[in-house]
Design brief:
- This protein has about 350 residues and is α+β, with helices and mostly antiparallel strands.
- The chain has one domain: Beta Barrel (Lipocalin), CATH 2.40.128.
- Helix content is about 15%, strand content about 45%.
- It is built from 3 helices and 11 strands; from the N terminus they run αβααββββββββββ.
- The protein has helices at about 5-25, 60-70, 75-100, and strands at about 55-60, 120-135, 150-165, 180-190, 200-210, 220-235, 245-265, 265-285, 295-315, 315-325, 345-355.
- A 10-stranded antiparallel barrel has the order 2-3-4-5-6-7-8-9-10-11.
- β7 and β8 (about 265-285) form a beta hairpin.
- It starts with a helix and ends with a strand.
Length: about 350
């Protein structure tokens, strides 16, 4: 066996491992259950804004609400509003856990240092996000038809390691099909209140594939895929006197594409992506002492994400900031009386510190 054959097998094996990891993230149905609750004070009605050419979708909610109402018009509004609140919580917690870039302040794959030694990056990010929801702390169906804003704060820790250095096409064109493996832990704090309280934590796995590594002449370009599993979320609390309650699990699948460039100590990056938030959801609207009125179904929504970030480099460390926006989803109920509008945009702001060795 000649040297070329050995090298080709080594490269092929590493690349197949990277592809298997990325595909496996979207094939394994892992669930995590951690109780959570909470909602906070009133805010403005959702804006009628959408992102041009963005993709948004919502599945499973209309069927679940139809089962929840059971043909009784008195339960139509509570089932609809608490179902939309569960979907909005999925999107808010999912977005704050995923953010924009999977590796803050870096558009290229990390690659390797010397021989088989991978380059490793550790990043800590903090983010803020406002999420509009129906006021599920209400004790009446009429009160549930308003809107509130939840102030969410999140913390994310990412670890990335270069698994494959990729191919070099020319002296300044390298990192083609390079692979980084990514692991993350996130914790999102929800505001206290009768409807939602506490925090939701989750972990994630993913991979980033380089299309082009940054050099003096070209920007860094890469794409990534991740999956994150969060604890369960609760909207409303029947035991505390609310008219309805929703409990939902959350799994977030994300795709990202980024391009960026460093100019000595400064850098700039922009990107776009797609998120899918999904989980089994239980809606509860009591119909009497002997009937809790609970139904369960799978709810999933998809939307497009856009973001931009800038950073300062300090040899092996970096400080970055990111601003992003996520599209809303169409309201599935054309004749709703509620004020909450799920088609409004979600903006977030985050800052991160990263060290690369």
């Amino acid at each position: 066996m000649d040297d070329w054959t050995v090298a080709l097998r080594a490269v092929t094996g590493r690349w197949v491992v990277g592809l298997v990891v990325m595909a496996g993230l979207f094939a394994v149905p892992v669930r995590v259950s951690t109780p959570v609750a909470g909602i906070v004070g009133p805010a403005r009605a959702a804006a009628q804004e959408t992102i041009l050419r963005g993709r948004s979708d919502l599945r499973g909610l209309t069927e679940l609400v139809e089962r929840c109402t059971a043909g009784n018009p008195d339960f139509v509004s509570p089932c609809r509003e608490v179902g939309l609140a569960a979907m909005s919580l999925q999107q808010g917690v999912g977005l704050l856990g995923a953010l924009g870039s999977d590796i803050p302040g870096n558009s290229s794959t990390l690659g390797r240092r010397l021989g088989a030694m991978p380059r490793v990056g550790l990043a800590v990010s903090g983010g803020l996000l406002g999420v509009r929801v129906p006021p599920v702390s209400s004790a009446t169906a009429e009160g549930l038809e308003g809107t509130e804003t939840l102030a969410l704060a999140g913390l994310r820790v990412d670890v990335a390691a270069g698994a494959f250095d990729g191919f070099r096409l020319a002296p300044t064109l390298g990192g083609v099909l390079a692979v980084d493996l990514i692991g993350s832990y996130s914790r999102v704090r929800l505001p206290g209140g009768a409807g939602v309280t506490g925090s939701s934590s989750g972990f994630g796995l993913g991979a980033r594939v380089g299309l082009l590594r940054e050099s003096f002449t070209v920007p860094g370009i890469s794409v990534s895929a991740t999956r994150r599993w969060h604890g369960s979320l609760q909207a409303g609390a029947i035991d505390a006197g609310t008219v309805a309650q929703a409990d939902t699990e959350l799994t977030v699948s994300s795709l990202r594409a980024v391009v960026g460039k460093n100019w000595f100590v400064l850098g700039l990056m922009g990107g776009a992506g797609w998120d899918r938030y999904a989980g089994d959801t239980r809606l509860s609207v009591p119909r009497g002492a002997a009937d809790p009125g609970s139904v369960t179904g799978h709810v999933a929504s998809e939307r497009t994400i856009y973001f931009i970030s800038g950073w300062f480099n300090f040899i092996i460390t970096q400080v970055s900031a990111e601003l992003g926006v996520a599209d809303g989803v169409p309201d599935p109920f054309a004749d709703r009386a509620g004020v909450y509008d799920p088609s409004g945009l979600n903006w977030y702001l985050s800052a991160a510190f990263r060290i690369t060795l």
